[in-house]
What does this fold into?
Amino acid sequence: MNYEQLLTQTALEDERYIVMTAENRALVRNIPAALGQRFIDTGITEQTMIGAAAGLALRGRTPVVHALTAFLTMRAFEFVRTDVGIPGLPVKLSGFIPGFLSDANGPTHQAIEDIALMRGIPNMEVFAPADEEDLLLMLPAIWSSSAPSYVRINTRPTHYHHAPYEPGKAEIVSQGEDITLLCYGLLFDQCLQAATILQAEGKSVGLINMRSLKPVDEKALIEAAQHSKLLITVEDHFLTGGLYSILAETLLKHRITANVIPFALKERWFKPALLPDVLQYEGFTGKQIAEEILGYPTGQQAVQMTPSEFAE
It folds into this structure.
C-alpha cells in the first residue's frame, strides 16, 4: 500500500474525509475518480484552500490538504494559524517535498523552516516520518485525531522495518552509551549508515527516530541525555526552531546538561542539485556525519546545551 491508496481507503470508509489540493496532485492523482465531489482542487491558492478546509472542518469534515511544503507552511501561514490552529480544527496538512526532498529547487521552494513555523502554532501537531513505511504506520492515528496536524510527507523507501507508531512517542532504534543520534524524516537513513560506521569504530551508538516533533517524546530525549556522553541532532532544517531547539528547550525545562553536536543548516539555504549531490555538498551523508562525530573529542568541543549551574 502507498500514500494514495491509504488515503483513498480511509476516505471511502469514512465519508467525513475530504481530500483537497492547491494544484499539487502528485500524491493524489487517482483520488478524484474514487471520491468525486469529495476531492477539491482550488488551484494555486493555498490560502483559499486552508480557509475552505477550515470551513469544512467546522461542519464536521476532516480535510486532508496537499500543497508544496514551502507554500503550505509559508504562503498560507496566517490562515493555518488563525483559521485552523486557534480554533483547533482537524485539518490535516500534507506537505510535499519538504527539506532536502526539494533538492533541485532554489530557496523560494525550499521548506527548511517549516518545523519551526508549524510547531509554533497553538494546537498544531507536527510529524516527520522517516520513510514511506513509517509514514503509513503513522497516518491512521494522525488522521483520526481531532487535532490539527502538519506532516512532512516522505514516500521514499528504506530497508528498515519500523516499530508500530504510538502517538507522541519516538522510535528507539538502539541505545548507546557513547553517542546517540537524534533525527527525523529523510535523514533517518543517513543516520542508520552513520551509526553502522560509528559502531565499527568501537562506539556504543544509540539512534532515535523523532517521528513526532509535537507532541515530542520528552522521556526519550531526557534518557538519551542521561545515558549518552554525546548527543547528535540531525535535520534538513534551519538550526533555529527545529530538533536542536526542541532538544534545548526540553533539557533546559528539566534542568539537564548535555554535550550536543547539531547537524543543521546554519543561516543559509542549501545549494540546489540532485539529492545525492545535495547530501554530499552539504555534509549530510552517513559517512560525513560519522567522520565529523569521530573528529570531536567527547565532551570537549561539543556544545553545552544548558549552563552547568542549572544542573540538579
In short: Residues 299-312 have pLDDT under 50 and may be disordered.
